Amino acid sequence: MSDWRTLSLWMDQLDEPLEPRPALGAELQADVAIIGAGYTGLWTAYYLKRQAPQLRIVILEAETAGFGASGRNGGWLMGNLLGEDRLLGDLPAAQRKAAFDLLHGIPDEVGAVLQREGIACDYRKSGVLYCAARYPEQQASLREQLQGLRALGLGEEDYRWLEPTELAQQLRMANPYGALFTPHCATLQPARLVRGLARCVESLGVEIYEQSRVLDWQPGLLRTAHGSVRADWIVPAVEGYAASLPPLGRYQLPVQSLLVATEPLPAETWAQIGLERGQAFSEASRQVTYGQRTADDRLVFGARGGYRFGGQLRTDFNLTSDERQLRRYLFGELFPQLREVRLSHAWGGNLGMARRFHPHMLADRRNGIALSGGYGGEGVGASNLGGRTLAALILGQDSELTRQPWVMRDGHLSQLRSWEPEPCRWLGYNAIIQSFVHEDRVLADPHSAPWRRRLAQNMAGFMESFMR
Ligand SMILES: Cc1cc2nc3c(=O)[nH]c(=O)nc-3n(C[C@H](O)[C@H](O)[C@H](O)COP(=O)(O)OP(=O)(O)OC[C@H]3O[C@@H](n4cnc5c(N)ncnc54)[C@H](O)[C@@H]3O)c2cc1C
């Protein structure tokens, strides 16, 4: 048994003993066989079992429920999808509104299930503050983003600009220029959600086998070292681990995100900072930062990590001193009183980035394969939608869920766009990230000349255009 508790603050906080469930040691026949006990696999099992209790559903997990990103993420449960502007931009207005309503409803849907099933995971729906806080260009870029959202038909009730004085009622930072606020986001304790979901689906009759890595998969059949499962439907739900199940690795780039957590901070510190209702927050650089005040009063703060040549998965998440320092520097700029604070935990995980930079949900009825992924670091909410959608597709339903532009109803894996072969992937990804790092360094320096600032921004903007 591994020391799963060291995977993240969240796994460390669990009250349960973290005993593994039994491994698969037989040849089983099921209706649906799911690979991976993260949110995607568990939500799919949940919605299937709630609607069709007669189905035999088996989940095979290489380690333990929550071993992947689901037990390690930043705990933002967002009511949107990566790339939704591109996915929904061309739809007729009424259809677009319905799609946004579906996305904005994700946090409430999760909240309702938690309530119904008695899963306690510190769920608080208080929205998210995208803050302009480190340099003035952040304000311009957030305001531009807001214009884009307005053009898509989203109003004040969905996204609202907060001037620094209004922002200060929720969050007090060193150098605020304002913030974009949306109520469509909750925060939670990720590992409690994934572990609670696993217990919940088990109580509904789903069989979960742990330490049961799928070594070989094909339509209708999964094999582990000591057993196999034959099933009408196979659901690979491995997101950032797709490389372990060829040919899925072609479609998902495994990139890392890395976080740190402080010890619980005293009430006087939080009185200075705010976030009383557990709002999520970020600062609007291209470093993809995300933070939350946890239920036990820690600051958890993360930022984008790297990509390894050949799509190799990172397994050692003992953060280097540079990786810790970057995160400490970023939150220290927002909250100077925390510059010297002690970090109790530092960790990270792998997530899956699709080549089109938006999620996909697919059902291939001929081969009996259903999958949802490519959430690109925004999968806590998207995986709930993914699970609901896959359940509907497997059950042959035609509904609002299955008629969205991210759904390939009668799809085939080959319709997903593949990543370029190496070394193009590595060179391309790193060139883009380096341009973001350079931009951030130039803009964060108040002495940078205006022409240098513009050049750095234009270069990063140009590089970002390849992510569309
Ligand atoms: C550090 C970090 C921070 C993040 N923060 C946020 C956030 O704040 N908000 C947000 O919306 N999203 C966030 N994300 C993304 C989000 O966590 C993921 O998109 C989501 O958890 C994906 O869930 P999943 O079930 O698809 O994949 P995972 O949770 O990764 O689950 C996949 C499971 O498959 C198992 N597995 C892999 N290979 C095999 C095999 N061959 N056989 C059997 N089992 C296998 C793994 O052990 C794992 O348990 C973050 C991700 C990371 C890494």
TrEMBL record:
Tell me the ranges covered by the FAD dependent oxidoreductase domain, including all copies: 31-393
Record's GO cellular component, any one? cytoplasm
One of the record's GO molecular function terms = oxidoreductase activity
Stored InterPro entries = FAD-dep_OxRdtase (IPR006076), FAD/NAD-bd_sf (IPR036188)
Entry keyword set: Oxidoreductase
Pfam families listed in its UniProt record: DAO
Query: What is the designated name of this protein?
Result: FAD-dependent oxidoreductase
